[in-house]
Amino acid sequence: MAFYLFDEPEEGQDNPWTLIDQLDRTKLLSAGNKGTAKLLAKRLAFTHFVYVRV
Predict the structure, then answer these.
(1) How many domains does the chain have?
(2) What is the pLDDT of residues 12-24, one digit of tens each?
């Protein structure tokens, strides 16, 4: 399993991300809920995402 690491994406911008092999909770954005996570995924142009509450 790999995880996407990114800064808060902005709408209409090229939002870079990197893949990491180990989950580092200190680097995670606080999406707060599934709706916010979905918005961030859309801004990153992801077609699929899984919301995991940690």
Answers:
(1) 1
(2) 777 678 888 888 8
